[in-house]
């Protein structure tokens, strides 16, 4: 449970410094600092402390958690080839689940990730595969593509016989009692209940359905932190499985499982439909900086601010 501890406030000098930094960076949302699993300081410039945001690519960390759980249940392995699930993917006989997790598959999209209008996830998978191209030069090398995690999400649905949404809710939302988390295709009433912060941009729900597992969920800072903490501290995954899924990737960016491995912490970033998101979290999950904004026009400045604050408090 994340408890705001009144004795753990920042020194006013530091608080003023961070506020100025974030104001200059154009924050339109929330920055929250967690230390020893407690919310230590929060700065809100739009919405309120519980506002939820489209988390975009930060969702990939959670998709990786679902993948690792399925692997621990012997539903498939990291070495299994994509051909086992979707033989019509180009070069499917050589691309492994691990390649997808590390974005080293060499696969590129040549069209939308699904149908418009959206029919169902199976139809979206076939549409995406039909428009997928294999680039041999990128096989085994890091090439950031949403497609890899969307394909992983379709594999999850196939091996479990359940929707990604059901799997996500069963692993995260219900057991962790997340009150400010839902899929952005939920109805207006549900989005109101989770305090979704609308930013005035029109979100294309067909495209959001296409981004299955890679950018379709809204979460508050606290919900995102709680979920990340429990993925890293042995509650949702065993210590061994956590170390496997979030190990430094075999690529120049050290990317695997939705997280970039840095010296002493992990990083994750999201950007889409005017929302941007930055997670900086220690490897044991105890310390973190979460920044979410409903205006992504200052993406670079906000990313730098999250980095500066995390480094200032917890080191590189």
TrEMBL record:
Localisation per UniProt entry: Membrane
Keyword ATP-binding: no
Keywords associated with the record: Membrane
One GO cellular component term noted in the UniProt record for this chain: membrane
Beta-lactamase-related domain ranges (all copies): 48-242
InterPro entries tied to this protein: AmpC-like, Beta-lactam-related, Beta-lactam/transpept-like
Transmembrane segments: none
Protein name (record): Penicillin-binding protein
Organism: Lactobacillus helveticus CIRM-BIA 953
Lineage of origin: Bacteria, Bacillati, Bacillota, Bacilli, Lactobacillales
